[in-house]
Design goal:
By secondary structure, the protein is of the alpha/beta class. It folds into two domains: 164 residues, 3-Layer(aba) Sandwich (D-Maltodextrin-Binding Protein, domain 2); 116 residues, D-Maltodextrin-Binding Protein, domain 2 (3-Layer(aba) Sandwich). It has eleven helices and eleven strands. The strands form two sheets. Strands 2-1-3-10-4-11 form a six-stranded mixed beta sheet, with helices on both faces. A five-stranded mixed beta sheet has the order 7-6-8-5-9, sandwiched between helices. α2 links the parallel β1 and β2. The radius of gyration is 23 Å and the shape is globular.
Length: 313
């Protein structure tokens, strides 16, 4: 009789034991994508979601929450329960750079970083028929006339160019544009000498439609070895961005681990690797939550120094 009672007690306790030892998730989960539908981040999230459903055994709902470079989605995630059932997808600079400008209601410690599934390789581009052949030649020509016309898409790239202008004693005329497509159109129309763009400018360079002059990616672009990074050019500054998954602060470490390992698996599938390598033309990298958190904090230190250097009289 005593044995039967113990068995019954164990059977009754099984659901609680299962929950405590990792039944997450036991219902559908949601990913807030911090960018518009149809863009690169949206495409990445939906490719990953298909494989995540197989691993997690639950429906994965992808919901676009665009605005402020991922900041709108981040603000919403900050206010949600840290149970792992709704997480966000944005970029590292949403946390490492944007809060420095004082225009968002969150900071690094308001979140649990889960994983980075790939990186971006941003570039500086010029017209294919420009008078100059390389970045140094462009700077030399701009110094002769006294200014350089530059199409900017983000506060960070603007700050990078303002720093370069300060180092070179050169006036940078900033031309704001809406996204990389707008910046590339400014280049192709001959309205600017230089513009900032995402890695989707790389195939345009290969086709001869425009010229990649430099990259802000610190490791350079392996398929374009002739293109220098800003570090190669001696400026000592960079922008290295990651596509990142994150949750509210104080997520359960075991729930975080479930997400991290599911994302590690999903980001290694042939379909996703092909997307990053051949469609997005990004960097193939995976960072777990601790590695990502450390990378974001290092960026904050470096970007703080960059901002200070630009603002110094």
């Amino acid at each position: 009789m005593r044995t039967l009672m113990i068995i019954c007690a164990l059977i009754t306790a099984l659901p609680a034991i299962a929950h405590a030892t990792g039944s997450f998730p036991d219902r559908p989960v949601t990913i807030f994508v911090g960018f518009r539908a149809g863009g690169g981040s949206d495409a990445a999230a939906r490719i990953l979601a298909a494989d995540l459903e197989k691993t997690l055994g639950q429906t994965v709902i992808v919901q676009n929450v665009p605005g402020a470079g991922g900041g709108v989605a981040a603000a919403r995630i900050k206010s949600l329960p840290a149970d792992g059932y709704t997480i966000g997808f944005a970029v590292a600079t949403t946390f490492s750079f944007d809060p420095m400008l004082g225009q968002v209601s969150f900071d690094i410690d308001d979140f649990t970083q889960i994983a980075a599934t790939h990186g971006s390789r941003s570039v500086f581009v010029s017209p294919p028929n420009a008078e100059f052949k390389d970045f140094k030649g462009m700077i030399a020509l701009a110094k002769k006339r006294g200014w350089l016309n530059y199409a900017s898409i983000l506060p960070l790239d603007r700050m990078l160019m303002e720093y370069i202008g300060k180092k070179e004693g050169l006036a940078i005329n900033i031309v704001p544009t809406k996204g990389g497509a707008g910046a590339r159109q400014a280049v192709l129309g001959g309205y600017v000498d230089l513009a900032y763009s995402g890695s989707n400018a790389i195939p345009m360079h290969e086709e001869g439609a425009l010229k990649v002059m430099a990259t802000s990616f610190p490791d350079g672009i392996k398929e374009l070895p002739e293109v220098p990074s800003l570090i190669d050019l001696g400026y000592g500054v960079y922008s290295e961005n990651y596509s990142v998954f994150f949750g509210p602060a104080n997520m359960d470490p075991e729930v975080r681990k479930v997400w991290t390992e599911a994302l590690r698996k999903a980001s290694s599938t042939p379909k996703y690797v092909d997307f990053v390598r051949n469609s997005f033309r990004g960097s193939e990298v995976f960072l777990d939550g601790d590695q990502l958190d450390a990378a974001i904090r290092k960026q904050r230190t470096d970007f703080t120094a960059l901002k200070k250097a630009v603002e110094e009289k």
